[in-house]
Structures are given as structure tokens and as C-alpha cells.
Write a structure and sequence with these properties.
The protein is of the alpha/beta class and 324 residues long. Helix content is 40%, strand content 18%. It has 11 helices and 14 strands.
Length: 324
Amino acid sequence: MRRVLITGGAGFIGSHLADVLLKKGHKVVIIDNLSTGSMDNISHLKDNKRFANHIDTIMNKRLMKRLTDDSDMVYHMAAAVGVKYIIDNPLESIQTNVRGTEIVLELANKSNPKKKVVLASTSEIYGKNKDGHASFREDDDRILGTTSISRWSYSCTKALDEFLALAYYREKKLPIVVVRLFNTCGPRQTGRYGMVIPRFVKQALLNQPITVFGDGRQTRSFTYVDDVVKALIALAKYLGAVGEIYNIGNPKSISINELAEKIKAMTDSTSKIVHIPYEKAYEKGFEDMRNRQPDISKIKEHVGFKPKVDIDEMLDSIIKDFEK
């Protein structure tokens, strides 16, 4: 039985990860400040004797030291997430993503023995698309916009997280694994912070206008949370993953217009699909990327990862969860 610490464990992905680890017989401890997480996500675990939760910030270094020392490994999932949340809370987002990760890595390195850290990064790392660039590989160059556009701050903070993790690995021999997540979706995800699928599903079920930002021709790939959790656990177990970066995602993409139409049809909604310019949805000067799909050849080769849940299955599961 392993003792696993999950930062951001009351969040959407963190809570699903806790579920699976507990089912596998591990002891799970989470810490979450509930800025974007929710007690509803972990309420079903309260009577599990192998589960403990701490509602606190990862900035609480004294508590984090105790939790890290008492664990065998750390999944660092805590971060400011969602385009809307990051734009609305730029200072907090930068501080949480940079200082929080610094604390996690520092304490994991000082612990005896050193603790393996699986660091959740993001596809936002890649920034804008190159012309004719169909999908992103882990070693691709990054193209970002100006610092006056706040959405790029998230990409920069997560890049700094990766630099920190890799520096700890190279200089201190801290066992780290970096994962870049591409649009994870599933039950428990909220549209409150800009996530597109739960926002569309809620609007469709309430027969409200389904609001598509921009022209809707931009494409995204969506990965079901169960597939993501399996990949996270497989990479934590794989010794060859230490010091490496992996994309976790689904290479199949869909346009946002097609996504809205599909959700409308699957919910038998009378909603109208309405397009809203970016400057009205977010802020003046907001930039988006036209396409974002992962190249998953590396993770497929190393641990055999292949997403199993397609877009229709994902949406059916999410719709049923919202209907409840």
C-alpha cells in the first residue's frame, strides 16, 4: 500500500485520480483550497479510512512539509485553471502556479527519501499554431503572444513550472514526471471557469443560447478523465518516465461549432447557437489558437497509452451527470 499526496485533490481531475488510487488499495491524502475545487467532488470519500483531506493552500509550507514527508509520492495537480479564471485572477494565478510548484518541488527534494513528483502541466505551453502545424510534440518550439494579453501568463507560469521540475531532476536527481494535459473533460467538471463542454451542456439542458466564442471554426481535442487518470498512474509506475515530458490527450479533434451542434442534438435542446466575439467574452485583445491536437506517439510507445473513450461517449456521460 502506497501513501499518495494529491495537491488540488478536490478538483475535477484530482478527485477522479483519488477515486482510482483508493480502489487500487492506496492511502490517499489531498490538499485543496477550493478556489476551483469542490467538497462535492470528494464527499463520497469521507468515510473511507484510507482517505484524508486538508482544506488549505499549498502555500502553507509547514503543512505541506508534513504531508510530503508522510507520503511516498506526490501528484501535483493544484493550479489556477480555466481561461476565464486566469484572466479574472491574474496575480493569484501567477503566484499559485509558480510559488506553489516551487514549494512542492523543494519539499519533495528535501524529504528523506526524495519523493517522486508527477507535475500536471498543460497544452497551453505550446501557445499559438505554426502554419500547417497539425499537432504538437513534446519537443516542439513554443510561440506566444505579447505579455499585455493576460491569457499567455498561464502558459508562461506552467513553462516555468516545467523548467523548475527539470532543474530539480538534473541538479538534485529529484524523480519528476511532467505531463501536458489536453482539454480533459468528464463528470464533475464545471463550466464556471471557461471550460467549454460543461458550459455548452448546461446551456443546452436549460434551453438557453449555446454561446460559441469567436467563429467556432477553431478545433480542439477532448480527452475523457478516466483515460487521463490511467495515463497518470501508468507514468508514475514507469521508471523510464522520470525526467521526461509527456502529452496526455486525444489526437482526434472537433470544431467548436460541431461540438455545439452535437451537444444540442444529444440533449434534444431548443437552444439557439449564438456566436460571441472574443472581446465581448473575455477582454480586448484576447488571442486564441485555431487548432490544438496532441501528438501522443511518445506516451503510446512508453506505456501503451491510447484513449479509449470517444467524443460521443464523453458527452453522453457528462450530459447524464448534469441531468442528475
